[in-house]
Amino acid sequence: MEAISKNFFLYLSNNKLLDRFAKRFGAKFGADKIVGGETFTHAIPIIQQLNHDGLEVTVDHLGEFVDCEEESRDRAGECIRTIQQIASGGLRSEVSLKLTSLGLDISRDLVIENLSLILKEAEKHEITVTIDMEDSSRCGETLDIYRELKEKYPNLGTVVQSYLYRSDEDLDALNDCDPYLRLVKGAYKESPKVAFSEKKLVDDNLKHLIKKNLLNGHYTAVASHDDRIVEYTKALAEEHSIPREQFEFQMLYGMRNQMQKDLVEEGYKVRVYLPYGEDWYGYFMRRLAERPANIAFAVKGIFSK
Ligand SMILES: Cc1cc2nc3c(=O)[nH]c(=O)nc-3n(C[C@H](O)[C@H](O)[C@H](O)COP(=O)(O)OP(=O)(O)OC[C@H]3O[C@@H](n4cnc5c(N)ncnc54)[C@H](O)[C@@H]3O)c2cc1C
């Protein structure tokens, strides 16, 4: 039953017709519990509150399916304005982005050009930018672009997904560029040809990648809501005397709020991933696929309108 609902919501997350429908009719379906509003201005008070509660933030201007050059340049412009507003507002926030929103499906040169403009602005304000990882067909090119730009811009991070068989080798290949990595299980629908389908193997591989990256001495963002992964990381750091400045926990906005606060009280760095923007639909559907319990508040959202 769980697998059926997961596949169903992942299918919906890619449905362009429903995406347009959701935007046109503006129905939020409970999305406001996990999305920080339709513009960055809406997100600012949320970031201020999170910072006030001791939480760091990374904001993501939601956007997928960009297939025209002009739109990709608009996305880059929005990202640059966001960085400027973070700096001028004294907000403790980084930025996350997806390469497809900057034109990955159009041309590599276009992405490099857009991303370089963003990174130049981020560097001025000492703000880190993390490239989210999308589906496996884009993984190789995303990591190539990461390596290329990381040499020039140290304030660049990316993501490695433990459900992919290739990830262990990817970590080895990235080892010499002092990567800033967010380690996750992976959120897309992938074929057994490229990804573990058994949950235990995905979980075990995430633990393996966390250990490897930390023992290699690299900064590691452990992005999971799973108690077992969080406890594993704490115990590992204790056992190997890994300083708390070398890692952080990351969780999505609206998920496990109490756990986020408890970790801050214990003295760990916790970063909340706060998406905002009109294109909330694909993000929202992937969250529903991950955790059917999220459906409960989505349904409440529909009926409270
Ligand atoms: C900050 C951040 C950034 C991410 N970036 C990417 C990315 O770039 N690319 C990508 O593919 N994926 C990304 N993801 C998504 C990630 O890949 C997983 O799909 C997602 O985090 C679900 O896996 P999990 O480890 O949180 O826990 P799951 O494996 O979903 O759940 C394990 C257990 O954790 C507990 N749990 C999980 N969620 C909740 C909850 N909401 N409330 C209560 N208990 C819960 C439950 O006990 C559950 O059984 C990101 C996730 C985070 C947190």
Automatic annotation (TrEMBL):
Keywords: FAD, Flavoprotein, Nucleotide-binding, Oxidoreductase, Proline metabolism. Its cofactor is FAD. The keyword Oxidoreductase applies. Residues 47-297 form the Proline dehydrogenase domain. Pathway: Amino-acid degradation; L-proline degradation into L-glutamate; L-glutamate from L-proline: step 1/2. Pfam families: Pro_dh. Its EC number is 1.5.5.2. InterPro entries: FAD-linked_oxidoreductase-like, PRODH_bac_arc, Proline_DH_dom, Proline_oxidase. It is an enzyme of class 1 (oxidoreductase). It comes from the Bacteria. The keyword DNA-binding does not apply. It catalyses: L-proline + a quinone = (S)-1-pyrroline-5-carboxylate + a quinol + H(+). PANTHER family: PROLINE DEHYDROGENASE 1, MITOCHONDRIAL, PROLINE OXIDASE. This is proline dehydrogenase. The lineage of its organism: Bacteria, Bacillati, Bacillota, Bacilli, Bacillales.
